[in-house]
Design goal:
The protein contains 21 helices and 19 strands. By secondary structure, the chain is of the alpha/beta class.
Length: about 700
């Protein structure tokens, strides 16, 4: 088999389920634990039986590929008993029945080191669920995913009652298990805190995709009422998923009558329903009250521009950080209303708008917001591009929610066996503001870090904006007012403007003072003796004398070999302490255009060759100016003086006075120009 070492195959050509085999499917995490992932898509091409069939004196090899079966559970238990650091087991999309599930539950209760179990889309039926609920109080699991197992409504009721006995479970997924309205009422009842017995530890509940059976229809109004009552009296749920309930606008209105009193719900998933503009009006009115909701998923509904506009009016008053409006009936006007409401003060981190009718206007606004930093490309599912002077939007694969929820591999083919290591992406960062299940956490400092005291961004007068993207709340002003400056940046800017006080056309910017390196003079560059400096190569640093006092760290003047410019060391103390001279130069370069930036860099790196070229350029410019000046004088005579001349004597007298007053040269060209101008005006012949 491909990607399977030879020592994993036993003599009868069947893959051995030993410890080495299971180790290749484990992910090692930063906290020292491991996650065992045995998805069917990864196991199917790697395990099976190879047999040979004889046909007409020819051996034909036949591969019987298979998934994880019930008889593989004992091998898995042997591996888990020897590796107690495995805390999570993922057996999605396999062929496990109730017998294998019962053995697995018994092991988890006995050894208690497995905290997460995922058996979605298997063949677990009633006996396995009954055995799970019988010893529910002893089960140490914190995550249990049973979605996709068609065990029916009666077993779903037992799972709901199992929540009353278990105090460890935090995440329960019972979506698509053929539930009916009666079993759903059991879940809403055990989560109401106004009952005598209730669950107070569950944080995430997924009741999506119920199945009422043939020729039965859900009473959505009744379900909306009981779900609203549950949320009114519940104080522990953080995420609630209600997909494919066929909720209408009226059902949303009924649900919000009681749900508006909830103070803990942070994520509400209403995807794949029949919510329209009227329902969006009620949701917008609820968001204006400032609930704790930070994530709203409304994909695959029938929302139009009117509903988007109502939502845009409510977003500035809400705590929304994640919004999904993909695959609705929005057009440019509705999407533009949503985008225009995402100002710099809003906390929105994730935005999903793909699947709507969006054109040039929306794409241009998205591109502008990506450039300005209001949105981040990794947190939006569309990417703008221009073609034929028209902007369009393409799908950008930033939404990993469904991929992780359904346990879909990232690649369509099995990857080589390896032991990956999962690092802690939040190490050294602030607590994430978006931390939902199957959603990438978003820390605070990546977009809007807290402005520290005496930081340039906290000053109301400075024009220093080195990184406006990181601090979008920074005020924008172009005037410098040193009187109200609190960060001393204005003083640095004013001092930087005084750099050109030397009596020369060439200004050399000195290096900053470093009092910690005054003994060995390693902080500066000494041109007369080619002293030790970090910019010098290693073989030239040792030639600098230890007792050198000719650089700016000493008390004598700095003498530059490339020019006669000199300055005293005490003049360098005019700049504020603690600011590197390179930083000053960088601040100056950021405030000028590209042409002036090139000139400044050229002047700083001035040498004799550059100086000669500049002088030659100045001489050439001066010659061109003299020629232009002569042409301007000739034109002046033609327009103003020559038309007033009436005789040749006046012309000769004016020509004589012009040579004395305007210093006109006695040359053939100037005289010919003067004569031609006069002949054009009065017709007198001055050739003789």
């Amino acid at each position: 088999m491909t990607d399977v070492p030879k020592n994993l195959k036993n003599p009868v050509t069947e893959i051995s389920m030993n410890s080495l085999f299971f180790s290749f499917f484990c992910e090692k995490w930063y906290n020292g634990t491991r996650r065992l992932i045995l998805r069917a898509a990864d196991l199917f091409p790697r395990i099976g039986i190879q047999t040979f069939h004889a046909k007409k004196s020819t051996l034909i090899r036949i591969n019987f590929r298979r998934c994880f079966q019930d008889w593989d559970v004992p091998h898995l238990m042997i591996f888990l008993r020897a590796n107690r650091d495995v805390v999570s087991i993922n057996l999605a999309y396999n062929n496990i029945h109730s017998a294998g599930f019962i053995n697995l539950v018994d092991y988890i209760i006995a050894y208690k080191h497995v905290l997460e179990l995922n058996v979605q889309n298997n063949d677990i039926s009633g006996p396995g669920i009954e055995h799970l609920c019988k010893d529910g109080e002893k089960l140490p699991l914190k995550t249990l995913r049973l979605n996709g197992n068609k065990f029916g409504a009666e077993c779903a009721k037992k799972v709901a009652l199992f929540l009353l006995k278990n105090s460890h479970l935090r995440y329960l997924d019972v979506a698509e298990v053929d539930q009916t309205a009666s079993s759903l009422v059991y879940f809403t009842t055990v989560m109401r805190w106004d009952q005598d017995e209730y669950n107070q530890t569950l944080r995430i509940l997924d009741l999506s995709r119920p199945n009422t059976g043939h020729m039965y229809v859900l009473d959505t109004a009744h379900l909306a009422n009981v779900i609203g009552c549950m949320l009114r009296f519940n104080r522990c749920l953080v995420e609630l998923h209600l997909q494919k309930y066929s909720f209408s606008c009226h059902d949303i209105e009924v649900m919000l009558e009681d749900m508006k009193y909830n103070k803990t719900l942070q994520l509400l998933d209403l995807s794949s329903n029949n919510i329209g503009d009227h329902g969006m009006d009620h949701i917008a009115n609820w968001l204006k009250t400032g609930p704790a909701l930070t994530g709203l998923l409304l994909a695959h509904n029938i929302i139009t521009d009117h509903g988007a506009r109502a939502l845009s009016f409510a977003m500035p008053f809400s705590k929304m950080k994640m919004l999904d409006l993909s695959h609705n009936k929005l057009e440019d006007i509705g999407v533009m209303d949503i985008l225009n409401s995402i100002k710099k003060s809003t906390l929105l981190r994730y935005l999903r708008i793909f699947g709507n009718s969006m054109g040039h206007c929306t794409a241009k606004i998205v591109d502008r917001m990506l450039v300005s930093g209001v949105l981040v490309q990794e947190n939006i599912d569309v990417k703008p591009y221009a073609k034929d002077h028209k902007w369009n939007l393409a799908y950008y694969p930033s939404d990993h929610y469904k991929q992780r929820y359904y346990n879909v591999p990232r690649y369509a083919f099995p990857q080589p066996l390896k032991i990956p290591y999962v690092e802690n992406k939040m190490a050294g960062k602030a607590a994430p503001k978006v931390n939902f299940k199957y959603v990438d956490p978003v820390p605070l400092e990546e977009r809007r870090p807290k402005v520290q005291k005496n930081h340039p961004f906290s000053c109301i007068c400075c024009e220093c904006r080195a990184d406006d993207v990181l601090n979008s709340l920074a005020p924008s002003t172009t005037n410098i007012i040193p009187e109200v400056c609190t960060c001393s940046t204005c003083e640095q800017t004013l001092e930087a403007n005084k750099l050109g006080t030397f009596q020369s056309d060439v200004t050399l910017v000195p290096r900053p003072l470093c009092s910690c390196n005054q003994d060995d003079c390693a902080c500066c560059y000494c041109l007369p003796c080619k002293g030790k400096n970090e910019d010098l190569p290693l073989w030239e640093r040792d030639r600098h004398p230890i007792n050198c006092n000719c650089c700016k760290c000493g008390t004598q003047e700095v003498e530059y070999a490339s020019s006669s410019i000199s300055t005293k060391s005490n003049e360098l103390h005019d700049y504020p302490d603690g600011v590197d001279q390179l930083q000053k130069i960088a601040l100056i370069l950021e405030r000028v255009d590209s042409e002036m930036r090139e000139h400044i860099v050229r002047w700083i790196n001035m040498n004799e060759e550059t100086l000669d070229s500049d002088l030659a350029m100045l001489y050439a410019d001066k010659s061109e100016m003299n020629e232009e000046k002569q042409k301007d004088r000739a034109c002046y005579y033609q327009r103003r003086v020559v038309p007033k001349l009436t005789s040749s004597e006046d012309c000769k007298e004016l020509h004589r006075q012009g040579q004395e007053s305007y210093d006109l040269p006695e040359c053939e060209s100037s005289s010919s120009v003067f004569i031609a101008c006069h002949e054009l005006s009065c017709g007198n012949d001055l050739t003789n």
